[in-house]
Amino acid sequence: MSQENDFSEIAAAAATTGAEFARSNFETKLDLENKGESGEPMGPADVVTETDRETQRRVVEVLTERDSAATIVGEENNAAKTVPETGRAWVIDPIDGTFNFVRGLHYWTTSVAATIDGEPVAACSVLPALNRTYSANNTAAFLDGDPISVSDRTVGQSTTVAPIIPPTYGDRSVYGDGVGDMFRRFGTTVRLCSAQATLALIARGALDGAVTPQRPNPWDSLAGVQLIRQAGGMVTDLDGERWTVDSDSMVASNGQIHEELLDAAKGLR
Predict the structure, then answer these.
(1) What is the pLDDT of residues 3-52, one digit of tens each?
(2) Where are the domains of the chain?
(3) Is the CB of residue 109 less than 8 Å from the CB of residue 203?
(4) What is the C-alpha separation between 244 and 120, in angstroms, rounded?
């Protein structure tokens, strides 16, 4: 477990195993449950299925077989919910974009990231419905095995940015006004309803930036952060400080538009 390439290979094996199971249940009849604590305001995207749970179980099986000493952090089941400050950990989102998954939309991922002392060192995000696999070690990022890099677009009509992880369901007027300002400053905005899919698309240069004023969960973010950084991009918080798992917000970009995106993102708060 001393070689970083081992981490990327394990991440790919685990994510692929989970993705294959999740794909077999895509566009089938599913029983839906709301997720979150009792009394918490829930929105239409706050759903979970048994497929989420079983996908995570299958990912965990691969990880524990290959690296039994590491901590498992994941969205579902009884996995830890925080990334340890020291040692190795695997961070799992079995289906990032369950809202899309249950509606037959194709932007959802099975994502796995490896961390050492809280920092990502390898990642894999599989988009099963699109037959795409994004991966990163600690030196480069790849799409289906081919090297990728962020775009070189600068602020202007050609740029596309994405709001991710909006506030909980309820009054979103301030957030909506902020998104409107982003739309005016950049070429256009899109929302894919999957943070990991969005971050992967920034890494390959299809999108140019993404923002959330919320603190992203580690399973929603770490794999994508590693992809973007190894593809040459930049990830900070809303104050422009380097993003970590303890950051209270996220701004990710190709680097070229980062300062403008930081300024626009202030309106989302």
Answers:
(1) 555 899 999 999 999 999 999 989 876 655 555 544 343 444 455 678 88
(2) 4-147, 160-268
(3) no
(4) 9
- Give the predicted TM-score (pTM) of the model: 0.91
Q: Radius of gyration of the chain from Cα atoms?
A: 17
User: Domain 4-147, what fold?
Assistant: Fructose-1,6-Bisphosphatase; Chain A, domain 1 (3.30.540)
Q: Is 269 exposed, middle or buried (0-12, 13-18, 19+ CB in 10 A)?
A: exposed
C-alpha span between 181 and 161 (Å, rounded): 12
Strands 234-236, 209-212: parallel, antiparallel or unpaired by DSSP? unpaired
The rounded distance, in Å, linking the Cα atoms of 185 and 179 is 10
Question: What does the pLDDT look like over 23-36, one tens digit per residue?
Answer: 998 987 665 555 55
Q: At 105, phi and psi to the nearest 5?
A: -90, 150
Q: Please name the CATH architecture into which domain 160-268 falls.
A: 3-Layer(aba) Sandwich (3.40)
